[in-house]
Design a protein that fits this description.
By secondary structure, this protein is an all-alpha fold. It is built from 22 helices and no strands. Helix 1 packs parallel to helix 13, helix 7 packs across helix 8 and helix 8 crosses helix 15.
């Protein structure tokens, strides 16, 4: 695969390997970046799922904490793969699923961030239109166009923008927290012991799913760190950054939704800010619009990286600035169109979206992490991953595909949604534990199927590859080669 370097201010790389000479940044910068990925008001919708089931604040907060910590573990473990392999997240799935078989999880991973971008535009557009001149639709269009431009320029500008806005959003969250303590009836909320097993699992699943949804994009950004960066440090930065913003905003969303049950969550946050004074409601809506703009750019960026990595397995092509620009432009148009067509009830649409993506992503993350940490232990031939024929990993990874499919099938009886409730979920009163079933089944199945693979011979091949990684936990410095001729031997 041929690959282009940075062209002026516009990023050229998409699905290809990032050589050591083009890497930089710091773990601290990653922590700020991942704090900002969750630091949008759309996160508040995730915290409002429990109250939909009549849950009180204590039970809702407990479900938020458990779900968030559980879901974030997966994205944090994926984060360490970026510097080690120098590849975006989903092309790494070619190892487990094959170069063409990976189209299955890649398609899901492309839909997830692009779907999030739709909700970001709707939330940001609504926030801006509530306090600034212009219609809701006009703001969605404007924010969408700007997000597309930001995504085209690429990683460095996105990271810089996130770094600056992180401080603004942090100050805004502090002010909103003070307002919540001053305005909301926290005493009554804390004393409300309302509980629902179904609601608890729904909130836990929504919070976990919201975090797991980030897993397919984590290495897209951590891959730019030097390969000498400690894996534990990268995982910690991703974990702490996303957990802090997710818990903070989801708990705030739960408290606000319980205090203003008849209002949309974002509108309720603005109302609370106005009630406190100092123009906080207006400022919050402006900040929310800016943050949604940047996070929409992050989502479109990663969604198109996944799309290109999937398409390249069927027809070899080089990553170029023009290709990135065209792909991102098309995705941006689709996102804007979907945002304009989305029904007004964001909370119900978003909670359903989170459930569905959780069902599809859990089996993939189980297979991918089992392979990386337990089976191959970080020893990969990047040269073979980048070949359209899959090299030693092949075009069709039957073991990975079978493990994924079995995980999805085993989840079906445990599914509980407004569209379908499985027999086991029905017997549990509608409680949804499908995510746990998919995780265990897919991970265990893959580990068992991989026992028949001759990993010793594979490691010998990896050691001779032009671009390869070392053992897990050991410093890995892939070659600075710009890439390999497509289809050539490793």
């Amino acid at each position: 695969m041929s690959s282009s370097h940075q062209h002026g201010a516009v990023e050229a790389r998409s699905f290809d390997h990032v050589p050591e000479s083009e890497r930089g940044g710091s773990v601290r910068g990653q922590a700020k970046f991942w704090f900002m990925v969750n630091a949008t008001l759309i996160t508040a919708y995730t915290g409002a799922v429990g109250p939909l089931f009549g849950m009180g604040l204590p039970a809702t907060v407990l479900a938020i904490v458990v779900g968030t910590l559980f879901g974030t573990l997966f994205q944090a473990f994926h984060g360490a793969q970026g510097p080690h392999m120098g590849l975006p997240q989903m092309i790494q799935s070619r190892v487990q699923f094959g170069s063409r078989g990976a189209i299955l999880p890649i398609a899901v991973a492309a839909v997830v961030p692009i779907g999030f971008a739709v909700f970001y535009l709707q939330t940001g557009g609504g926030a801006a239109a509530s306090v600034l001149p212009g219609t809701f639709e006009a703001w969605q269009l404007g924010l969408g166009i700007l997000a597309g431009v930001l995504a085209i320029v690429g990683y460095r500008l996105i990271l810089a923008a996130e770094g600056v806005i992180a401080y603004v959003m942090l100050a805004n969250l502090v002010a909103l927290t003070v307002a919540a303590v001053s305005v909301l009836p926290l005493g009554d909320l804390v004393a409300d012991g309302s509980w629902s097993a179904v609601g608890f699992l729904a909130q836990l699943g929504a919070s976990a799913g919201y975090q797991i949804a980030i897993a397919p994009i984590v290495s897209d950004y951590t891959r730019y760190l030097p390969s000498s960066t400690r894996s534990a440090a990268v995982s910690a930065a991703v974990f702490v950054g996303t957990v802090c913003s997710a818990l903070w905003i989801e708990v705030l969303g739960a408290a606000v939704s319980l205090s203003y049950p008849d209002l949309d969550v974002v509108v309720a946050i603005g109302t609370m800010g106005d009630a406190w004074g100092f123009g906080l409601g207006t400022v919050t809506m402006v900040v929310a619009a800016i943050v949604c703009l940047v996070t929409a750019a992050v989502s479109v960026y990663s969604g198109t990286v996944s799309l290109l990595s999937g398409a390249e397995a069927f027809k070899a092509f080089a990553s170029t600035p023009a290709l990135r620009a065209w792909t991102i432009s098309i995705a941006t148009v689709l996102v804007i169109a979907a945002a304009l067509a989305l029904p007004g009830d964001v909370l119900l649409s978003f909670s359903t979206f989170l459930l569905l993506l959780g069902y599809l992503l859990i089996p993939w993350t189980a297979v991918n992490l089992t392979d990386y940490y337990l089976v191959r232990r970080g020893v990969y031939s990047v040269s073979d991953i980048l070949r359209t024929d899959g090299g030693i990993y092949g075009r069709w990874g039957v073991r990975g595909m079978a493990s994924y499919g079995l995980g999805v099938l085993c989840m079906v009886p445990f599914v509980s949604t407004t569209l379908y409730t499985g027999p086991v979920a029905a017997s549990l009163g509608g409680a949804d534990i499908a995510f746990a079933v998919g995780l265990v089944v897919s991970g265990t199945c893959y580990a068992l199927l991989m026992r028949s693979v001759d990993l010793a011979s594979e490691r010998a091949h990896v050691s001779a590859a032009e671009i390869a990684t070392g053992r897990l936990g050991r410093t890995s410095r892939p070659s600075d080669s710009a890439g390999l001729a497509e289809g050539s031997p490793a």
